[in-house]
Amino acid sequence: MDDIQQLSRSRAAHKGKLTQFTNFIDNLSTPLNADGVINLELRIENIIATYDKFDSIQTELESLSEDTDSQILERAKFGEPYFESLARAKGLVKAFSNEHITPEAKPSHSECID
Q: How far, in Å, CA of 33 to CA of 35, rounded?
């Protein structure tokens, strides 16, 4: 098997991980509880690492391929759902955090003015 085939298979595996993450976000029950937020934060870390690996593989494929246009399209087909799903996931974590800040933890107006 040549380099392009191996890299393409590896890229496909990372696309599968993105699909799993996106499906998880789509099927997530809200509102989240504390355990759900921790689970989501771990998945966010994992999908960020997946993106880094995908980016490395895709860059290598782009350097080896003669069909630049199709490689650019492959990057976009991964990037768009990645950033959309990641934004949704981070938004859910932020919403949970905002809802669960105790009044004692929020700075008073006088504490903000120095």
A: 6
pLDDT in tens, 8-58: 999 999 999 999 999 999 999 888 999 999 999 999 999 999 999 999 999
| CB contact at 8 A, 50 and 14 | yes
Q: What is the DSSP string of 17-41?
A: HHHHHHHHHHT--SS--HHHHHHHH
> 68-99 and 34-64 are packed helices; what angle lies between their axes, rounded to 10 degrees?
170
What top-level class would CATH report for the domain 3-112?
mainly alpha
Domain ranges of the chain: 3-112
- DSSP assignment letter at 1: -
